[in-house]
């Protein structure tokens, strides 16, 4: 579950790591049969946390982008169904996150 509703679930390092842990758990645990991504609050995911990125130097920004891409690659290669329940804002990296899921379900609100 994406749980930064006050920031429209914008991606920061902690949220990326949290999603990555869920993907790793789904891969390694035979009792987990699928992965469902849901965003708390008014949005699924508004993309990268721009305020956090503004504080990064070039190297840290590059590492953040690599971590996000690694997460997307892990999701795409997951052999179990990965679903994304979309609502509200789905922008930038949030759109990439949604596209990395095998199936997406969207609600107009």
Write the layout of secondary structure elements.
Elements: H1 13-28, E1 35-38, H2 50-54, H3 58-77, E2 82-86, H4 93-100, E3 103-106
Parallel strand pairs: 1-2, 2-3
What does this structure look like?
This protein is of the alpha/beta class and 109 residues long. The chain has a single domain, classed as Alpha-Beta Complex (2-enoyl-CoA Hydratase, Chain A, domain 1). A three-stranded parallel beta sheet has the order 1-2-3, with helices on one face. Strand 2, helix 4 and strand 3 form a beta-alpha-beta unit. Helix 1 runs parallel beside helix 3. The longest helix is centred in the middle third of the chain and has 20 residues. It is globular, with a radius of gyration of 13 Å.
Helix content: 40-55%
Number of domains: 1
Task: Find the count of extended strands (DSSP E, 2+ residues).
Answer: 3
Multimer state: single chain
Order of helices and strands: HEHHEHE
Class, according to the CATH hierarchy? Alpha Beta
| CATH homologous superfamily caption | 2-enoyl-CoA Hydratase, Chain A, domain 1
């Amino acid at each position: 579950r994406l749980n930064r509703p006050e920031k429209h679930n914008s991606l920061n390092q902690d949220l990326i790591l949290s999603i990555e842990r869920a993907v790793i758990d789904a891969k390694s645990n035979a009792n987990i049969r699928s992965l469902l991504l849901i965003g708390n609050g008014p949005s699924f995911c508004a993309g990268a946390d721009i305020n956090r990125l503004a504080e990064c130097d070039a190297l840290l920004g590059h590492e953040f982008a690599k971590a996000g891409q690694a997460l997307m690659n892990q999701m795409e290669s997951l052999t179990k169904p990965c679903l994304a329940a979309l609502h509200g804002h789905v922008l930038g990296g949030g759109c990439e996150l949604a596209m990395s899921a095998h199936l997406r379900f969207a609600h107009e609100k």
